[in-house]
Amino acid sequence: MGTRQFAVCDNDREYLRMFQAYLQKQNPADYEIVVFDTVNQALAASCENAFEILLVGEKIYDKNVIKIKATKVFILQEDGLSGITQYSMIAKYQSMEKLIAQVLDEFALDDSFNSVGRCGKNKTSLLSFYAPDRQKGQSAAALGAAQVLADMGNKVLYINLLPFTGFEELLRTSYESDVTDFLYFVLNHSDKLLYKLNSIKQCVHGVDYLPPVLDYADLLHISGQDWERMMDTLLYSSDYTHIVMDLSETCQGFYHILGRSDRIYLLTDCDTSYGRAMLSHYKKLLKEKDYGVLLDNSIEFSLPSGWEHHSERLENISVSPVGVCMKGVLDMCGMCEK
Q1: Could you give the dihedral angle defined by the CA atoms of residues 53, 59, 64 and 68, in that order, rounded to the nearest 10 degrees?
Q2: Which of 9, 51, 108, 243 is the most buried (most CB within 10 A)?
């Protein structure tokens, strides 16, 4: 059986060069990337190994395209005057990131295509971050740790499950969908996880992340069993070396995710009576629910005083005092060696 190929056919060789360079760098859904500057070249190659996705430039399209063996064909639209109607149209001149996201999203939603189950190439480590006293530094610490791991060459996915994150303002961006959209899709189409993941994920400082939820009530409606299924799918069907979970109690899979974690990082504030009391309450609860073993897998840490005054740019938090602190925390438990 041949490799899964993502093919692009266009007579603009500079566009092909840029497209291929982008795809090879991003490597969406673990494809082999192939490019052609004539339809006949693509047709001949598809006879040897059928393409999974084929993008054809509107200006190069001819009647032989229908003969090309491909699961899904898209037309790279320029002026829309060609009259092509049998294939999906994708605007050619837009950011590569948006173009690929649209292609993979439509591909994932196509019920006529059934993907093949697969296992990830890497052993995926699950790291969970939690602050019993709901410190605002929890996300800074979790994202800082994720960036430190990415700086070391690891492939990292960060998932924030807090009810409020402020990421759109802090990262100066906007989201059209969020982690719950991804979850609901994967629960019904687990074989297409990689396509949906690559269509929805964002990236900051080398870390892939799922856009956090806008309405925390959406998280409350997801059952613990569904969270278990999602985590199983991510851990065994993705190619990430690390998944960093930024946890809150709004997730009904809270205990399951903690139990599946290779390491749990507890952000604490033992300098105040409130912080100490909340940590004590958390530990008592775990013991009462027979989850005391999770405490043995937990690392307690605190952020340096005044960290928030030097960590306003989440894009580069790994080089801030938070990042330095998290590198030390990860080193302490040998996680940076993985």
Answers
A1: -10
A2: 9
Quickly list DSSP for 189-254.
Answer: -GGGHHHHHHHH-EEETTEEEEPPPSSTHHHHTS-HHHHHHHHHHHHHHS--SEEEEE--TT-TTH
SS3 content of the chain, % helix, strand, coil (to 5): 45, 20, 35
CATH architecture group of domain 5-109: 3-Layer(aba) Sandwich (3.40)
User: Residue 116 — pLDDT band, cuts 50, 70, 90?
Assistant: very low
Whole-model pTM over 0.90: no
Distance, in Å, from the CA atom of 105 to the CA atom of 132, rounded to the nearest integer, reads: 37
Adjacency order of strands within the sheet including 51-57: 32-36, 5-9, 51-57, 70-77, 88-91
Output phi, psi for 269, to 5 deg. -130, 85
List CB contacts of 337: < 8 A, sequence separation 6 or more: none
Q: How far apart are CA 183 and CA 168, in angstroms?
A: 20
Greatest alpha-carbon pair distance for the chain in Å reads: 75
Q: Please give the Cα distance from 73 to 89 (Å, whole number).
A: 9
Higher pLDDT, 132 or 338: 132
Q: Do 33 and 53 contact (CB within 8 A), yes or no? A: no
Instruction: Pick the more confident residue, 117 or 205.
Output: 205
DSSP single-letter state for residue 74 = E
The CATH homologous superfamily for domain 125-337 is: P-loop containing nucleotide triphosphate hydrolases (3.40.50.300)
Of 126-130, 223-227, 269-273, give the range with the top mean pLDDT: 126-130
Q: What average pLDDT does range 171-197 have in this prediction?
A: 83
Residue 153 CA to residue 68 CA, distance in Å, equals 38
Confidence of residue 102 (pLDDT cuts 50, 70, 90): confident
**Which residues lie across from 128 on neighbouring strands?**
245, 264
Q: Where are the domains of the chain?
A: 5-109, 125-337
